[in-house]
């Protein structure tokens, strides 16, 4: 540990059958006869067809590339789903709503396609300038992608927020296919999953409907197949092995914010932001990177919460963040954290720009 007070440094199943009343574009939970299923819903592509490993008919003579994004209310499981598809952590996750604040791109590499998933903030009724800017980011992303996945958690009833999103998506859906995705199916029984699929189908017209669980990888590969079907033919857009195009400093800042979000009061997460002031290799040490970062809060009382009694909580944040940053960078990390009060930054245009919003 380095320093005292407000600084902390550390070195360092049984699944449901297709419910009655669900349309033919529903991807039912279970195996298709002989492992083969016809293309359903909108889309599909010309070319020689073959049965994919998930029962989805694909073409063997074309390569597809393009962009997809997941949308939904805050805490609908979008970031967890993105990480599951990419196969590694590119977006932070938390039980706190509105965790995502940037459009993070995760890249899925396949022999037949390259799928770039844009993880966007949850669409919500904004109460601050930050909230309005995050919503603008969502709408901008919708207009640029090739396919949209509308995520609704299996354990929460469809409500006004979902219907509002559906109304907005319907405008995009005229030119961009929308997949209905019931997430978090591991949290509920098969009857509730089936009912949620029925309820979601009534919300809007989907190209496909599919239930998934990122936690137990249920139908994740099938979801990838369905997204790829909607992409245009094209070459790779990113080199092999590249999993995100986000700068390392952005990813490091997000990992620190993720650690800081754990265990804080409900009103505090929205007031937390993180900036990386400096990140450089230690002189004379090939395997050590020095990271100096600032956690921004809006009030002095929030600063006290983040630091904790005797700095205990800030040290725990640093320890957790350091483990994830080391895994990201592949080297040892010295992490120096400082907590700063940036009064009402969510409502201040100048401070928002400074913090990258």
From TrEMBL:
Protein's job: An essential GTPase that binds both GDP and GTP, with rapid nucleotide exchange. Plays a role in 16S rRNA processing and 30S ribosomal subunit biogenesis and possibly also in cell cycle regulation and energy metabolism.
Era-type G domain location: 64-233
Region of interest: G3: 119-122
Localization in the cell: Cytoplasm; Cell membrane
Family the UniProt entry places it in: Belongs to the TRAFAC class TrmE-Era-EngA-EngB-Septin-like GTPase superfamily. Era GTPase family.
Chief location of this protein within or outside the cell: cytoplasm
Name under which the protein is recorded: GTPase Era
Stretches the record annotates as G2: 98-102
Record lineage: Bacteria, Bacillati, Actinomycetota, Actinomycetes, Pseudonocardiales
Region (G1): 72-79
Residues reported in the UniProt entry to bind GTP: 72-79, 119-123, 183-186
InterPro entries in alphabetical order: G_ERA_dom, GTP-bd, GTPase_Era-like, KH_dom-like_a/b, KH_dom_type_2, KH_sf_prok-type, P-loop_NTPase, Small_GTP-bd
Region spans: Disordered: 1-53
Region spans: G4: 183-186
Recorded topology in the membrane: Peripheral membrane protein
Keywords for this protein: Cell membrane, Cytoplasm, GTP-binding, Membrane, Nucleotide-binding, Ribosome biogenesis, RNA-binding, rRNA-binding
Domain of life: Bacteria
Region (G5): 212-214
CDD domains according to UniProt: Era, KH-II_Era
Subunit details: Monomer.
Species assigned in the record: Saccharopolyspora thermophila
Boundaries of every KH type-2 domain copy: 264-343
């Amino acid at each position: 540990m380095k320093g005292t007070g407000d600084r902390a440094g550390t070195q360092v199943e049984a699944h449901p059958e297709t419910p009655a009343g669900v349309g033919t574009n529903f991807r039912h939970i279970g195996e298709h006869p002989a492992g083969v299923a016809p293309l359903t819903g909108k889309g599909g592509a010309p070319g020689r067809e073959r049965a994919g490993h998930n029962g989805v008919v694909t073409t063997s003579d074309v390569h597809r590339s393009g962009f997809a994004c997941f949308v939904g209310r805050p805490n609908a499981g979008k970031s967890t789903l993105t990480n599951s598809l990419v196969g590694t952590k590119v977006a932070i996750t938390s039980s706190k709503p509105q965790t995502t604040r940037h459009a993070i791109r995760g890249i899925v590499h396949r022999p037949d396609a390259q799928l770039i998933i844009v993880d966007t903030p949850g669409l919500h009724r904004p109460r601050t300038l930050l909230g309005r800017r995050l919503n603008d980011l969502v709408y901008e992303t919708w207009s640029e992608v090739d396919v949209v996945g509308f995520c609704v958690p299996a354990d929460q009833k469809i409500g006004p927020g979902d219907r509002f999103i559906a109304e907005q998506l319907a405008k995009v859906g005229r030119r961009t296919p929308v997949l209905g995705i019931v997430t978090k199916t591991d949290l509920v029984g098969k009857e509730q999953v089936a009912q949620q699929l029925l309820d979601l189908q009534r919300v809007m017209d989907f190209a496909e409907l599919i239930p998934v669980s990122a936690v137990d990888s249920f139908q994740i590969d099938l979801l990838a197949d369905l997204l790829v079907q909607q992409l245009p033919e094209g070459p790779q857009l990113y080199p092999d092995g590249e999993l995100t195009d986000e700068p390392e400093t952005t990813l490091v800042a997000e990992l620190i914010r993720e650690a800081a979000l754990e265990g804080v009061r409900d009103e505090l997460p929205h007031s937390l932001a993180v900036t990386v002031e400096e990140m450089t290799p230690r002189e004379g040490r090939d395997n050590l990177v020095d990271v100096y970062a600032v956690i921004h809060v809006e009030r002095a009382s929030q600063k006290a919460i983040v630091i904790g009694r005797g700095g205990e909580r800030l040290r725990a944040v640093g320890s957790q963040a350091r483990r994830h940053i080391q895994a990201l960078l592949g080297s040892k990390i010295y992490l120096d954290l400082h907590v700063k009060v940036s009064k009402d930054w969510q409502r201040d245009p100048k401070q928002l720009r400074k913090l990258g919003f």
